[in-house]
């Protein structure tokens, strides 16, 4: 049976559309999986003092806020946190050794990180004399849910569902102490006494790139289909 040009065009259109939808689905899925607690530091070197920045996204599916965030430290010699409006901070110290075992940030009533937001938590610490350091974290939501970011890498180098934030200490020692360069400014969080605006979605750079790539695929697919239709209709 002979296929008409119009039928062929419809088939091409359906195939192109299905391919674009599948590509965008994979792209969006990848962005969701990448929303983990992450730690970073500039020129972090073994034995140096550095400002660690923890990026904490809100991931609650029922609208609950992140109201507490805690990080286990490898018994560092000293630690100092940055002032963060709307949050209080507690350092857990070993009374005998004088080291700091963990740091916990707690939100004031009415304050927290929604699913459309993330926050940056800064702490200056004296790093251990090692090549890398694992910093297990605990994220607590207003509904009581607790997420522990403490899983090691999977065999073969794969990423687990809740990976522990890990910092590679490969930078050159800065030679300063915790009174050196100021930490980056923390993400502004409204205090309990200030009127709160509606949460604003903050697109991550990697998410923006994926959406742009998906849009480009859609435009390319439409252009190909239109070209084929016009050629067959001529």
Automatic annotation (TrEMBL):
<feature type="region of interest" description="Disordered">
    <location>
        <begin position="150"/>
        <end position="199"/>
    </location>
</feature>
<feature type="transmembrane region" description="Helical">
    <location>
        <begin position="211"/>
        <end position="229"/>
    </location>
</feature>
<keyword id="KW-1133">Transmembrane helix</keyword>
<keyword id="KW-0812">Transmembrane</keyword>
<protein>
    <recommendedName>
        <fullName>YncI copper-binding domain-containing protein</fullName>
    </recommendedName>
</protein>
<dbReference type="InterPro" id="IPR038507">
    <property type="entry name" value="YcnI-like_sf"/>
</dbReference>
<feature type="domain" description="YncI copper-binding">
    <location>
        <begin position="36"/>
        <end position="169"/>
    </location>
</feature>
<dbReference type="InterPro" id="IPR012533">
    <property type="entry name" value="YcnI-copper_dom"/>
</dbReference>
<feature type="signal peptide">
    <location>
        <begin position="1"/>
        <end position="35"/>
    </location>
</feature>
<keyword id="KW-0472">Membrane</keyword>
<feature type="compositionally biased region" description="Low complexity">
    <location>
        <begin position="182"/>
        <end position="195"/>
    </location>
</feature>
<dbReference type="Pfam" id="PF07987">
    <property type="entry name" value="DUF1775"/>
</dbReference>
<keyword id="KW-0732">Signal</keyword>
């Amino acid at each position: 049976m002979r296929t008409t040009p119009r039928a062929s065009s419809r088939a091409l259109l359906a195939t192109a559309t299905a391919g674009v939808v599948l590509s965008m689905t994979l792209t969006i899925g990848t962005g969701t999986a990448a929303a983990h607690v992450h730690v970073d530091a500039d020129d972090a070197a073994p034995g140096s003092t550095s400002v660690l920045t923890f990026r904490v996204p809100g991931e609650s599916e029922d609208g609950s806020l992140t109201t507490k965030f805690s990080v286990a430290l490898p018994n560092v010699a000293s630690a100092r946190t940055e002032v963060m409006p709307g949050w209080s901070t507690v350092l857990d110290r070993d009374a005998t050794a004088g080291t700091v075992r963990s740091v916990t940030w707690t939100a004031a009533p009415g304050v927290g990180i929604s699913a459309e937001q993330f926050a940056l938590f800064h702490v200056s610490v004296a790093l251990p004399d090692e090549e890398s350091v694992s910093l297990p974290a605990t994220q607590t939501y207003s509904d009581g849910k607790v997420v522990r970011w403490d899983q090691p890498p999977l065999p073969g180098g794969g990423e687990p569902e809740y990976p522990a934030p890990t910092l590679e200490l490969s930078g050159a020692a800065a030679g300063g102490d915790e009174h050196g360069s100021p930490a980056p400014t923390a993400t502004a969080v409204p205090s309990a006494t200030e009127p709160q605006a509606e949460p604003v979605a903050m697109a991550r750079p990697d998410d923006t790139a994926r959406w742009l790539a998906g849009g480009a695929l859609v435009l390319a697919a439409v252009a190909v289909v239109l070209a084929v239709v016009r050629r067959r209709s001529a």
